[in-house]
Amino acid sequence: MRTGFSPGWGLFFLIIVWFCWGFSYPATKITLRGFDVWTSRLIIMATGGFLLLCLAKLTNEQIRVPRNDWQDLILAAIFNMTIFQLGMTFGVHFFNAGRTVVIVYTMPLWAMLFAWILLKEIPTRKRLCGLGLGILGLFFLMAQDFTELPSAYLGAACTLLGAVSFGLGTVWMKRRNWSNNATVLAGWQLVLGSIPVIPFWFFFGEKTNWNELTLDIWGSFIFLIVIANVLAYFSWFRVLSIFPASISGLGTLAVPIVGLLASFMILGEVIGWREVIALILIVAALFLTLSQRQRD
Fold this sequence. Notes:
Oligomer: single chain
Order of helices and strands: HHHHHHHHHHHHHH
Largest sheet: none
Shape: globular
Number of domains: 1
Strand content: under 5%
Helix content: over 70%
Radius of gyration: 18 Å
Number of helices: 14
Distance between the termini: 17 Å
Structural class: mainly alpha
Number of strands: 0
Mean pLDDT: 85
């Protein structure tokens, strides 16, 4: 993957990702008031991918993918888009937005493990300490009573599957030197990732009452396409091109904090003492992880 960006730019793109994806969880909850899971994800992924490819074309990027890259690109699309986005959306549907974002961002654990196995990226002590603090922070957020949500465990299982898939997809993108620009890769992954959703949408999708969609549902739906997918993936694949996979994964540990705060502000979800402790632990994990980026 071609990149001319410095680690400073990598951090800038990472901060964009924090806010785009953090606010996407309450936006998803609002969107599901008017759309079912299959319809919303099919439209969001396909439209977001098309817009990213149009953006690449407008900036004179080569959107044709070399034949040798297609196999890895298709697999990355399934891991990063199909499984992850569906798992996350079902998590928000069965769970709540704040808790779903917490489970999703166990992703760095899986990314570090897959990077160790597939890329032979041996984690340093600093990264292991950062990982430990981050996972401990996530534990504090998850150690709550889920009995008020009858499908909570189903939602948690779907979300965890998405998190593992996202971690594998993050590492899979690092397995080769891509010929295309990151915008092109993100666009193709969204388009390719939407294709397996089509048969599920055909059999299980529900009729959308377009005339009954309110402004907040439309606003959230458009946000998920333009901000949470186009802008976020535009930035995320640049993060992957700058940092090692394990650092890229750990760097996303700020997203659950943004997601929790966004869910509190937009949906009125409660933030308790566990969330405060988790915030301290995750910020410490980010400091340990990103302070080492210059050495890599």
